[in-house]
C-alpha cells in the first residue's frame, strides 16, 4: 500500500528537456501508484511566457511521448495540479511572485509547507537560486515541514568549483536537505549491489583481495554526442561519467558493510572507501589512465566533425583506467573501469574476476585438460538486468576434463516492465527524505580530488586524436592498460 506524500514541487527549468522527458513522466508514475494524490502541486518555471493551460498541455504531451494515454481522466487530473510561473532565476525581484504562488498552492492543496526545489537547469545558476530561495523567503518556515533542494549534474567541473558551489548551497540548505542526483544510483541493478554483497554469505565472505583478482566496470554507449556537444565538449568522458557514475559504482563495490541499511551508515562507508582510493601522482596518473576520441566510419563523422564541436577539440570521448585502494580489503586487487561513446554497444556491467585455484589438480603431466578458467561473477545492469556466475564443471562425457559453465539469472521482460525508472525512484526518495541514493558532499569531493589529478596530467599533453574506430571497444591503449598487468577485459567484442 503506497503512502501518500504531501509536497509542493518547484521545477526551475520546468520547460527543459529533462523535465519533459524524465521528471514529469516519473511524477506521473508516482501519482498512479498513489505516492502522490490530492496533496501535491507543481510550479514549473522558465523565462518564457505561458499560461497554466499551455503548460498542462505540454505536460500531457510529455506523458504521451513517454507512452501514456494523454486523453485519460487520470492524466488530466494529474496535470490539473501543474501551474506555470514565468521567472528569470537571475532576477531577485521575480522570487516574490513565486513566493505568493507557492503560498496560495500550499493552502489550496493542504501541503503543510513541504517544499521540493528541483534545479533542472544549467549549473551556473544553482548557487544564485539557492541563495535567493532563502533570502526571498521561498523556504517554508513551518517547523514541521521540509525544504529539500534537488541538484542536477554536473556538480562543478573540478574540486575547487565543486567546493565553491557547495559553499554557496550550504548558506541556504543543510547537507541533509541537499539531494545531488546521480541517476545511476536509481538503477535497479546498481541498488542490487548491496543486496548481492550483504545478503549473501557466499558472496561477502569472498569479497576481498584474497579471492578477487580484479573488478571491471564498463559503461559503454553506442551513440555519439548527439545534440549535447556544447555541454559535452566542455566536459569529456572523465568528468561526464567517471567522476560521478563510475566513482559511485566503485564505492558501492569497495565499501565495508554498513552498520545498518540507512543513508547515514551507507554514505559513511562509501566515504571511507573513497578515502582509501589512491590519488595518483603525475607519473601514476599518466600510466594508469588512458583516453580516446572516436574517429569516422562510413557516413558517420568523427567527433571533431560533429555539430558544435571545434575541429581541433582534444575532448576525450573514451576513458579507461585502473583504480587502487590502499586498505586491508583491497590492497593488490585493482578495479579497472572504462566508458565511452560510439562504442560497440549500449550496456553497463560489472565483472568480478576471482583468483584461480592455487593448485590446478587437473593439470597433471599427461592431462589434456585446458587450465581452469577464473570464476567470474557478472552483474548485468543494462540493457538486461541479472547476474551470471561462471564456474568450472566436468564436461558431460566419459572422460575427465573441465569446462567453464554459467549459472545465469536474468530478470524476465514482464518483471522488467515493473521496474521503476531511476528518476521515479529518486523523486520518491526525495519525497521520503531518504538520501541513500544521492551523492553526499564528501563523496563528491573525494571523487573530484581523484579525477583532478588525471585531468591535470592530461591537460599538459597533446593527445593523438582520433584514436579509436566507432563500434569498437575503444583505443588500443585500453587493451594495453590491462594486458600490462597480464589480465584481459572480460567483455570483449564477440564474446
Ligand atoms: N537532458 C538530459 O537528459 C539531462 C540533463 N541533465 C542536467 O539537467 C539540467 C537541465 O538540463 P536540460 O533540461 O537538458 O536543459 P535545457 O536546456 O533543455 O533546459 C534548461 C531550462 O532552463 C530554463 N532557463 C534557462 N535560463 C533561465 C533563466 N535565466 N531563468 C529561468 N529559467 C531559465 C530554460 O527555459 P528558458 O530558456 O525559456 O528560460 C529551460 O526550461 C542540466 O544541469 C543538465 O546538465 C542531467 C542528465 C541528463
Ligand atoms: O549522465 C550521463 O549519462 C548518460 C548515460 O546514461 P544511461 O542511463 O543512458 O546509461 C550519458 O549519455 C551522458 O553523456 C551523461 O551525461
Walk me through the structure.
- Helix content is 36%, strand content 18%.
- The relative contact order is 0.13.
- A hairpin with a 7-residue loop joins strand 13 and strand 14.
- The strands form 2 sheets. Strands 8-9-10-7-11-12-13-14 form an 8-stranded mixed sheet, with helices on both faces.
- With 495 residues, the protein is an alpha/beta fold.
- The structure holds NADPH dihydro-nicotinamide-adenine-dinucleotide phosphate and ligand LXAUTJHC.
- Ligand LXAUTJHC binds next to loops.
Key attributes of the depicted protein:
495 residues, alpha/beta, 8-stranded mixed β-sheet, 6-stranded parallel β-sheet, binds NADPH dihydro-nicotinamide-adenine-dinucleotide phosphate, binds ligand LXAUTJHC, Glucose-6-phosphate 1-dehydrogenase, glucose-6-phosphate dehydrogenase activity, G6P_DH_AS, carbohydrate metabolism
A few lines on this structure:
The protein is of the alpha/beta class and 495 residues long.
Overall 3D geometry? Answer: globular
- Helix proportion of residues, in percent? 25-40%
H/E series, N to C? EHEHHEHEHEHEHHEHHHHEEEEEEEHHHH
- Helix tally equals 16
Spatially, the strands of the biggest sheet line up as 8-9-10-7-11-12-13-14
Query: What is the multimeric organization of the chains shown?
Result: single chain
Poorly predicted sequence stretches spanning 5 or more consecutive residues: none
Secondary structural class: alpha/beta
Radius of gyration: 25 Å
Largest sheet: 8 strands, mixed
Ligand types = NADPH dihydro-nicotinamide-adenine-dinucleotide phosphate, the ligand O=C1O[C@H](COP(=O)(O)O)[C@@H](O)[C@H](O)[C@H]1O
- The fraction of residues assigned to DSSP E strands is 15-25%
Separation of termini?
44 Å
Beta-strand segment tally: 14
On the 0 to 100 scale, the average pLDDT is 96
Binding site for NADP(+): 47, 88-89, 153
Binding site for substrate: 183, 187, 221, 240, 341, 346
Protein name: Glucose-6-phosphate 1-dehydrogenase
Family: Belongs to the glucose-6-phosphate dehydrogenase family.
Amino acid at each position: 500500500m503506497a503512502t501518500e506524500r504531501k509536497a509542493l514541487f518547484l521545477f526551475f527549468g520546468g520547460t527543459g528537456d529533462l523535465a519533459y522527458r524524465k521528471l514529469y513522466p516519473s511524477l506521473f508514475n508516482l501519482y498512479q501508484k498513489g505516492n502522490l494524490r490530492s496533496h501535491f502541486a507543481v510550479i514549473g518555471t522558465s523565462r518564457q511566457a505561458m499560461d497554466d493551460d499551455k503548460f498542462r498541455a505540454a505536460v500531457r504531451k510529455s506523458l504521451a511521448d513517454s507512452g501514456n494515454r494523454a486523453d485519460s481522466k487520470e492524466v488530466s487530473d494529474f496535470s490539473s495540479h501543474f501551474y506555470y510561473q514565468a521567472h528569470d532565476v537571475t532576477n531577485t525581484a521575480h522570487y516574490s511572485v513565486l513566493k505568493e504562488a507557492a503560498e496560495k498552492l500550499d493552502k489550496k492543496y493542504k501541503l503543510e509547507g513541504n517544499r521540493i526545489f528541483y534545479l533542472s537547469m544549467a549549473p551556473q545558476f544553482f548557487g544564485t537560486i539557492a541563495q535567493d530561495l532563502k533570502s526571498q523567503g521561498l523556504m517554508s518556515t513551518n517547523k514541521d515541514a521540509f525544504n529539500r533542494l534537488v541538484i542536477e549534474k554536473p556538480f562543478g567541473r573540478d574540486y575547487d568549483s565543486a567546493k565553491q558551489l557547495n559553499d554557496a548551497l550550504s548558506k541556504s540548505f543543510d547537507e541533509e536537505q541537499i539531494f545531488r542526483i546521480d541517476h545511476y544510483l536509481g538503477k535497479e541493478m546498481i541498488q542490487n549491489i548491496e543486496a548481492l554483497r550483504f545478503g549473501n554469505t557466499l558472496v561477502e565472505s569472498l569479497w576481498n583481495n584474497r579471492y578477487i583478482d580484479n573488478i571491471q566496470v564498463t559503461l559503454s554507449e553506442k551513440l555519439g554526442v548527439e545534440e549535447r556537444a556544447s555541454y559535452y565538449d566542455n566536459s569529456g568522458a572523465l568528468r561526464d561519467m567517471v567522476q560521478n557514475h563510475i566513482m559511485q559504482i566503485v564505492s558501492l563495490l569497495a565499501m565495508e558493510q554498513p552498520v545498518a541499511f540507512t543513508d547515514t551508515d551507507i554514505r559513511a562507508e562509501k566515504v571511507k572507501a573513497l578515502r582509501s582510493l589512491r590519488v595518483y601522482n603525475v607519473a601514476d596518473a599518466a600510466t594508469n589512465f588512458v583516453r580516446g576520441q572516436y574517429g569516422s566510419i562510413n557516413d558517420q563523422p568523427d567527433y571533431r566533425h560533429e555539430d558544435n564541436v571545434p575541429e581541433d577539440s582534444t575532448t576525450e570521448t573514451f576513458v579507461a583506467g585502473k583504480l587502487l585502494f590502499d586498505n586491508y580489503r583491497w590492497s593488490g586487487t585493482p578495479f579497472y573501469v572504462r566508458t565511452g561513446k560510439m562504442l560497440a554497444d549500449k550496456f553497463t556491467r560489472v565483472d568480478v574476476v576471482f583468483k584461480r585455484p592455487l593448485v590446478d589438480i587437473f593439470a597433471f603431466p599427461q592431462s589434456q585438460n585446458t587450465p581452469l578458467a577464473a570464476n567470474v561473477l557478472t552483474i548485468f545492469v543494462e540493457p538486461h538486468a541479472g547476474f551470471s556466475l561462471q564456474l568450472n564443471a566436468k564436461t558431460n562425457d566419459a572422460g575427465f576434463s573441465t569446462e567453464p559453465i554459467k549459472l545465469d539469472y536474468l530478470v524476465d521482460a514482464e518483471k522488467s516492465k515493473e521496474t521503476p525508472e531511476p528518476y521515479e525512484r529518486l523523486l520518491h526518495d526525495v519525497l521520503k527524505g531518504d538520501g541513500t541514493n544521492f551523492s553526499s558532499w564528501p563523496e563528491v569531493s573525494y571523487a573530484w580530488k581523484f579525477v583532478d589529478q588525471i585531468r591535470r596530467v592530461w591537460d599538459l599533453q597533446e593527445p593523438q586524436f582520433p584514436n579509436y574506430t566507432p563500434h569498437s571497444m575503444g583505443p588500443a591503449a585500453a587493451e594495453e592498460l590491462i594486458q600490462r598487468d597480464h589480465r584481459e577485459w572480460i567483455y570483449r567484442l564477440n564474446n
